[in-house]
């Protein structure tokens, strides 16, 4: 029989053992693929959002229910307000552009909206905006009129046609193509419409929401772009020195903090994955060592039949790699499919940004998992290969038995 076919035949003949070993390999590779995916996707999301954000500084209310990191990277629904007089208090010397925004969120619990889940509503000052408008132009959306909304690619209304938000009907002006930023989970409208919504929907009992002021006297954030060559951190300090009653945050600093958090979480997960890898490697070394000892007589027969040592080593390597790599493929597919669920779990504890990625981006961790399974297969083959290399036809009747 051809030595290549014999290797695959041996796997089928010992399929119960092969399945158990493949499962062990699959679990290990699955863990690694999940961690690879979380690390690569989170870091890429941070870089993409930071590169496409277009702003250097953000000013947020002191009472904002989300910090700047969540606002930038998570797309979570947010409400927070400050007096719009902060716009007049900002030192403009080193600032090239700034734009106010007004945040609301859809309220699904009142049955007042077209959406099954809560989304961020972003009111933009269309005339001064420099963050959202470029994306509208890329999507051939040339204007944003009164009572019109633009939906991020992930925002799914319950029905087609008109959009109902807080009991008010809006016309759909367009849907953004994927931006790989928080805009994908956002409903965009004119800032005047978002202020009007807050005014007509919330009654007097909601005064605390709006600092006991009228919504038209408030804003939620100010996005700032500094002049070319200006030191962002110095501009931040200048704004803070103006005694502005709000948080003044450098977005580059936020990026560094988020990346540091990702690195710390990934380090903990890698320690867990490394421990799993080591335990699996030891277990597989033991399993294949025992299997090689049990097959010494079989190898002796094959040597007596004229097979060369190199052919037997190749046959055994095929068996090991088939079993381990099969587990690696299964584990990689499991890891890719479970990474979203794992992301949700980790994100409840610590912010782990996630963006929309290409098929190649999603397959990369899976391919790394398969490559890792090949490395495992080669490593656990070492001891059995040494034993095969020592086997001689004269030993055929003195050790082992055909299993």
From TrEMBL:
It is a multi-pass membrane protein. The keyword Oxidoreductase does not apply. The keyword Transit peptide does not apply. InterPro entries: ABC3_permease_C (IPR003838), Macrolide_Exporter_MacB (IPR050250). Residues 270-393 form the ABC3 transporter permease C-terminal domain. GO terms for cellular component: plasma membrane. It is found in: Cell membrane. It comes from the Bacteria. Keywords: Cell membrane, Membrane, Transmembrane, Transmembrane helix. The chain crosses the membrane at residues 20-40, 268-292, 313-343, 363-386. GO terms for molecular function: transmembrane transporter activity. It holds the Pfam family FtsX. Signal peptide: none annotated. PANTHER family: ABC TRANSPORTER PERMEASE YTRF (PTHR30572:SF4), MEMBRANE COMPONENT OF TRANSPORTER-RELATED (PTHR30572). Belongs to the ABC-4 integral membrane protein family. This is Putative ABC transport system permease protein.
């Amino acid at each position: 029989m051809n030595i290549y076919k014999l290797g695959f035949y041996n796997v089928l003949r010992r399929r119960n053992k092969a399945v158990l070993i493949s499962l062990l390999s699959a679990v290990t590779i699955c863990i690694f693929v999940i961690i690879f995916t979380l690390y690569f996707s989170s870091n890429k999301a941070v870089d993409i959002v930071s590169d496409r954000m277009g702003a250097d500084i953000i000013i947020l209310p002191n009472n904002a229910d989300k910090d700047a990191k969540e606002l930038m990277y998570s797309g979570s629904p947010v409400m927070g307000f400050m007096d719009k007089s902060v716009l007049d208090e900002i030192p403009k010397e080193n600032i090239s552009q700034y734009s106010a925004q007004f945040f609301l969120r859809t309220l699904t619990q009142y049955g007042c909206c077209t959406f099954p889940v809560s989304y961020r509503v972003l009111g933009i000052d269309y005339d001064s905006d420099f963050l959202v408008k470029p994306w509208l132009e890329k999507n051939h959306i040339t204007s944003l009129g009164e009572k019109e909304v633009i939906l991020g690619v992930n925002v799914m209304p319950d029905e087609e046609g008109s959009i109902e938000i807080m009991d008010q009907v809006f016309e759909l002006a367009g849907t953004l193509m994927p931006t790989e930023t928080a805009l994908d989970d956002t409903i965009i409208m004119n800032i005047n419409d978002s202020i009007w919504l807050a005014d007509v929907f919330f009654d007097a009992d909601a005064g605390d929401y709006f600092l006991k002021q009228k919504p038209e006297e408030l804003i939620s954030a100010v996005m700032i772009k500094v002049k070319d060559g200006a030191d962002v951190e110095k501009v931040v300090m200048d704004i803070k020195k103006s005694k502005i009653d709000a948080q003044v945050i450098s977005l580059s600093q936020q990026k560094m903090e988020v990346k540091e958090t990702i690195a710390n979480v990934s380090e903990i997960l890698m320690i867990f994955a490394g421990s799993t890898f080591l335990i699996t490697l030891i277990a597989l070394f033991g399993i294949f060592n025992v299997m090689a000892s049990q097959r010494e007589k079989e190898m002796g027969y094959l040597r007596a039949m004229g097979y060369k040592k190199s052919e037997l080593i190749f046959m055994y390597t095929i068996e090991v790699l088939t079993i381990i790599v099969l587990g690696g493929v299964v584990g990689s597919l499991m890891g890719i499919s479970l990474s979203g669920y794992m992301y949700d779990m980790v994100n409840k504890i610590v912010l782990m940004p996630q963006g929309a990625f290409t098929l190649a981006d999603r397959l990369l961790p899976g391919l790394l998992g398969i490559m890792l399974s090949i490395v495992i297969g080669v490593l656990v083959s070492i001891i059995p290969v040494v034993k095969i290399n020592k086997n001689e036809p004269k030993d055929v009747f003195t050790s082992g038995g055909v299993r």
